[in-house]
Design goal:
- One of its GO terms (cellular component) is basolateral plasma membrane.
- Pfam families: OATP.
- The chain is an all-alpha fold and 287 residues long.
- It has a domain of 189 residues.
- Helices cover 62% and strands 0% of the residues.
- It contains 10 helices and no strands.
- α2 packs antiparallel against α3, α3 packs antiparallel against α4 and α3 runs antiparallel to α8.
- The radius of gyration is 26 Å and the shape is globular.
- It starts with 10 loop residues before the first helix and ends in a 21-residue tail after the last helix.
Length: 287
């Protein structure tokens, strides 16, 4: 009867809201950060700076896995129960690690890391040697000059939409999705991240089930062996682009070649595996 009773805890709502707020705070870093670098850095230095930004972004999940490995070694009710009374170990299937501790540590760290952003200047001076017409900065200047040459604005009609930015957003979105190169790049990124997330999600579970490893050790191995090579590859790609001064066509050929080689090597995963565990009623009969 106890197994049929559903959980009445609503703590998942707090986790949902916390992740939503975290996503809102993290979203501007990548698009606005890259635009910031592109506007105020030398053209030949932008690939290296962007590579550094993405490399640091890859180090975050690595430290997250290592932190998760440490928290998984601690009992879930640490600080509330006498640990000497716990008779099971992390290798036991009934063990539940202190999963909630990672949220507190990462939340405090994110808050402290956000404080220096308050002291950054609102805008930087455009370098004189940069091309003003290649960035959004130059685009804004061109728009301002165009407005000065136009005739005086006509009086706005009375029936204005309540939210005019929605129509502007729809127009901008339509133009962006109509760009074939951007749309193709978005589809490629979608496929790459989908496979990467699946890899990180299920490989620790695979190691636990097939190799008898604890959750703590699985997270530790994934964080230590999978993510650093990705960060190193992003950084080296930025250096190669800077050294050979690749344009958009050269960068596309370089990215296609590297992605093709990565997919060919990834095919070797089909030849690696273990036999399924013998489970009565699933892999073998009850007899």
């Amino acid at each position: 009867a106890g197994c049929e009773k559903e959980s009445s805890s609503y703590m998942w709502i707090y986790i949902l809201l916390g992740n939503m707020l975290r996503g809102i705070g993290e979203t501007p870093i990548t698009p606005l950060g890259i635009s910031y670098l592109d506007d105020f850095a030398k053209e030949e230095d932008v690939p290296v700076y962007v590579a550094c930004l993405h490399t640091i972004a890859m180090l975050g999940p690595m430290f997250g896995f290592l932190l998760g490995s440490l928290c998984a070694k601690l009992y879930v009710d640490i600080g509330f129960v006498d640990l000497e009374s716990i008779t099971i170990t992390p290798q036991d299937s009934r063990w539940v690690g202190a999963w909630w501790l990672g949220f507190l540590i990462s939340g405090v760290t994110s808050f402290l890391a956000a404080i220096p952003f308050c002291f950054l200047p609102k805008s930087l001076k455009k370098p004189e040697e940069a091309n003003n017409d290649r960035t959004s900065y130059g685009l804004l200047e061109n728009i301002g000059a165009t407005k000065k040459t136009l005739s005086p604005a006509k009086p706005k009609p009375r029936n204005q939409p309540i939210y005019p930015f929605l129509s502007d957003f729809y127009t901008s979105l339509k133009k962006v999705l109509g760009n074939q190169m951007y749309f193709t790049l978005s589809c490629c990124s979608l496929l790459q991240f989908s496979s990467f997330i699946g890899f990180l999600t299920y490989k620790p579970k695979y190691m636990e089930q097939q190799y008898g490893q604890s959750t703590s050790k699985s997270n530790f191995l994934i964080g230590l062996t999978s993510l650093p090579p990705v960060g190193i590859g992003i950084f080296l790609g930025g250096l190669i682009m800077k050294k050979y001064k690749m344009g958009i066509i050269g960068a596309t050929k370089f990215a296609f070649t590297m992605s093709f080689l990565a997919y060919v090597i990834a095919l070797l995963h089909f030849f690696v595996g273990c036999e399924n565990h013998v489970v009565a009623g699933m892999t073998v009969s009850y007899e």
